[in-house]
TrEMBL record:
This is Aspartate carbamoyltransferase. The lineage of its organism: Bacteria, Pseudomonadati, Pseudomonadota, Betaproteobacteria, Burkholderiales. PANTHER family: ASPARTATE CARBAMOYLTRANSFERASE, ORNITHINE CARBAMOYLTRANSFERASE, MITOCHONDRIAL. NCBIfam families: asp_carb_tr, PRK00856.1. Residues 158-304 form the Aspartate/ornithine carbamoyltransferase Asp/Orn-binding domain. Pathway: Pyrimidine metabolism; UMP biosynthesis via de novo pathway; (S)-dihydroorotate from bicarbonate: step 2/3. Keywords: Pyrimidine biosynthesis, Transferase. SUPFAM superfamilies: Aspartate/ornithine carbamoyltransferase.
Length: 312
């Protein structure tokens, strides 16, 4: 594995290898992550052209736990504001002996473009990790979601998983769907209004529901999504109250799922829009553990790509 750009087509064995490697970084019995020298002497460049709280910070923590030197490029204060192109920026950072680029960009495909450019210019020693590109993919979020599900549910082959909300604009939903189907989850449901579900979901092997109460019946895992207004280009949106009435996860709706169902959310949450605080802060929510698991999962991805932990 040279780059991690998407979960689409990622073999099942590779996904399990990443999850197992992540487990090896977590001390038994707690969620502490050990410091290891796997990326000592390597430079990881965080290039976040779009805002982030969880992903950027956990990549920085993960890089430090792997003993890498981590450089957070301040995009707003960089020479991209003077018109320097994305690929010229990449070439200049590669000339500073970058070993890995962690890239978030609002344009779908930007990390793929960078990876192709590095390969075309024979800079094959530099790795690219997609930290979220437009509405396309967010593979490390998908993988940390799989880690979370495996942590709480142990197996994938007996689960029903529901993904609820704005699937159309969600890179997380796409990465989750690819990973869940590869891992053998027999029933993946998507629940949302027609206007927020993309075409072609049948080809991805998922069941579509427009009625949330029907879609939540008997599920083991609920993954809630935020309305991604920043990707809607001024489309006519339902009001927050209207959306919450039909697609908000309340305690009453959660009771339709299995009694031991877990509630996940990639964050950031909009309380009172897609999720009630009583659920977000309730005993079935595993939203903050997801964030913590993201450190070990990102360590696993970076060490497999650029470290000495073995080949995937
Ligand atoms: N889940 C996620 O990508 O959150 P951030 O945008 O805060 O990184």
């Amino acid at each position: 594995l040279q780059h991690l750009l998407t979960t689409e087509g990622l073999p099942k064995a590779v996904i399990h290898h990443i999850l197992d490697t992540a487990s090896s970084f977590v001390s038994i019995g707690d969620r502490e992550v050990k410091k290891v020298p796997l990326l000592r002497g390597k430079s990881v460049f965080n290039l976040f052209f779009e805002n982030s709280t969880r992903t950027r910070t956990t990549f920085e923590i993960a890089s430090k736990r792997l003993s890498a030197d981590v450089i957070n490029l301040n995009i707003a204060a960089s020479s991209t504001s003077k018109g320097e192109s994305l690929l010229d920026t990449i070439d200049n950072l590669a000339a500073m002996h970058a070993d890995m680029f962690v890239v978030r960009h609002s344009m779908s495909g930007a990390p793929f473009l960078i990876a192709k450019h590095l390969n075309d210019t024979r800079q094959n020693h530099v790795h690219v990790v997609n930290a979220g590109d437009g509405r396309h993919a967010h593979p490390t979020q998908g993988l940390l979601d799989m880690y979370t599900i495996r942590h709480y549910k142990k197996e994938f082959h007996n689960l029903t998983v529901a993904i609820v909300g704005d699937v159309l604009h969600s890179r997380v939903a796409r990465s989750d769907i690819h990973a869940l189907t590869t891992l053998g989850v027999p029933e993946v449901r998507v629940i949302g209004p027609r206007t927020l579900l993309p075409g072609g979901l049948d080809q991805l092997g998922v069941r579509t529901f427009h009625n949330m109460d029907e879609g939540l019946k008997g599920v083991d895992v609920i993954i809630m999504l935020r309305l991604q207004n920043e990707r809607m280009n001024g489309a006519l949106l339902p009001s927050a109250q209207e959306y919450f009435k039909h697609y908000g996860l309340t305690p009453e709706r959660l009771a339709l799922a299995k009694p031991d169902a877990i509630v996940m959310h990639p964050g950031p949450m909009n309380r009172g829009v897609e999720i009630d605080s009583a659920v977000a802060d309730g005993p079935q929510a595993v939203i903050l553990p997801q964030v913590t698991f993201g450190i070990a999962v990102r360590m696993a991805v970076m060490s497999i790509l650029g470290g000495n932990s073995g080949e995937a």
